[in-house]
Amino acid sequence: MGFEELLAEGASVPVEGWDFSWFEGRATEERPSWAYARTMGERMATATVALDVQTGGGEVLAGIPKPPPVLLATESWTPNLLIADRNLRPLGGQVAQADDDADLPFADDTFDLVVSRHPTVTVWPEIARVLRPGGTYFSQQVGDGSVQELIEAMIGPHEVSDSRSPGRHGMLARDAGLDVVDLRKQSLRMTFDDIGAVVHLLRKVFWLVPDFTVDRYRPQLADLHERIQADGPFVAHATRFLIEARKPESSTNT
What we know:
By secondary structure, this protein is α/β, with parallel strands linked by helices. Helix 1 runs parallel beside helix 7. The chain contains eight helices and eight strands; from the N terminus they run H-E-H-E-E-H-E-E-H-E-H-H-E-H-H-E. Strand 3, helix 3 (78-88) and strand 4 form a beta-alpha-beta unit. The chain has an eight-stranded mixed sheet with strand order 1-7-8-6-5-2-3-4, sandwiched between helices. The longest helix has 14 residues, at 218-231. It starts with a helix and ends in an 8-residue tail after the last strand.
């Protein structure tokens, strides 16, 4: 396909949910060594009351082999709510709508396990509040400088914020009264075989370039298309970190 056809395709693919199967054969991303989905599933199998924050369409959570007796999730984006409800209902799960940066709609000391994969923001005081004493927060997050090569291809050089750095989140977790028991970071190779895959990613993961539209970034997309045509797949690097934090047994909310 030519440039215009690839743009049109990337712009037309639905972005609801958190399913990335459309990228098969067009883009690749290495997976972190800690195997978040499998490990999270193991934690879920031993939990009693569990919560998945910012579940997306519930696709990752729906893959757990054994759900806990009580399974709840939150999601902010309205189009994802029906998808998440459909995916989680067979597990007995329920989904509540909640803005990503808002208070969680649950009572203090409710959950023995809270998980989250790629949250847009982590409100650490709220995580600490809803965890039971001895409860655990287990999360894979997007790290600082993720996909920097692609972002700079769109907007040019810019300073990387530390808002997504593992060190900062470790500090915020401790400030909220949690004990950080695991904190790891990895850089993972990504490749894009065509500009349609780039367009779809920037639409789906909209916070990478918050004002992205095909029309607004057409010149940059054209330049990147020419680079792919001349040099082969465009390579970027995603950063991911794993954080596990535990609420002390003696902790109480005030």
